[in-house]
Amino acid sequence: MLKEGPTHLQNAKTALDAGLEGTGQKTKATLEKLQLLQKSIAENSKSHDKGVTATQLAKEAFQKDIAEAKEAFDQEMTLRHADVVKQYVGAFVQQIDHY
What is the span of the domain harbouring residue 71? Predict the structure, then answer.
């Protein structure tokens, strides 16, 4: 039983790392797209005074989307961290129970 503990922990860590990498890449791509849109809107608003109000509203909406994406990423990382801690504690408790 003790010999299997490190293997389970390593498997859990590998699974977590793979999940975090995928989530991180998706979040980065989303943030980059939103930031490019925000930049484009900012540039267009400088050259088009008539559309200032609509452009400003769109810019604020994209800023809100960026903030929400960052918050979602932080929440996902917190949940994944909690899952890993739970797995480590579970494996540790199993090892203690074995004795």
Answer: 4-98
